[in-house]
Design goal:
Nitrilases_CHs; 6-stranded mixed beta sheet; nitrilase activity; about 30% strand; hydrolase; alpha/beta
Amino acid sequence: MSKVAVVQASSTLFDSKAATDKAIGLVIEAANEGAELIVFPEAFIGGYPKGTSYGAVIGSRTERGRQEYLHYYEGAVTLDGEEVARLAEAAQEFKVALVVGVIERLGNTLYCTALLIHPEDGVVGHHRKLMPTGSERLVWGFGDGSTLDTMDTSVGRVGSVICWENYMPLMRQAMYAKGTQIYCAPTADDRDTWAASMVHIALEGRVFVLSACQYLTTDDVPDEHHVDAEPRENGVLMRGGSMIVAPSGEVLAGPVFNEECILYADIDLEDKVKSHLDFDPVGHYSRPDVFSLSVDTEPKDSVVFD
């Protein structure tokens, strides 16, 4: 039996140092409760700019929007940067594995990335979101198949699928085939329908699902940054909805809305094994004679120098 934790909290938008400070404080809190794996929401470090248009309409951009993008870019992190190193140090010190949503800066492009941080080996994986949703495509680049990473931990094999990637059936199938046992779903989707998707994925993949979403309000947005969409009542931009689900579909914790919290659950990988008696989506229930999936895991560089 192992204890896992899901963090539901607000990011410190566009301030990676402050967001890392907050993340480490939450790591300490969850580790002190005995958690061996801690999952943070999508874009927790760097920020999810909910409701921001960046001054973009078809055929035109504004100078204010470009200035806002500059602010966002400056608040992103690099894989070899100080913030990521501090997270790895915290994982080692408190003997926990981490899945942390960050905005990653690579060259002149930003990516929505989930870091896989091992307590002994540091950053062992980084999954860049393959398919940003809607207007996210304005500010985030597309990941490729080279970052469909997993991480072996004391809790089990951990994989991460970000937000609406969870609606991509072939993406899910690929992650099941990689042997994912703890399926982490950092997200910005706080709708009632999200919970049903997480229960479905737990049953479909026979996996433990750990879904983490932020609780974010307009009070968390810097004064110089504009929110162009109307928030919910009381200025709520993201209301959470984080949860933990067993391979049986049983909800072990959550969903919780409209507050910051850490959710905990005790999980046993034997429950996953038992659930495969009647279903294995990449084994005895897969029918490879009829259906097959080919996954390209080669990195895709725009320029290759021979």
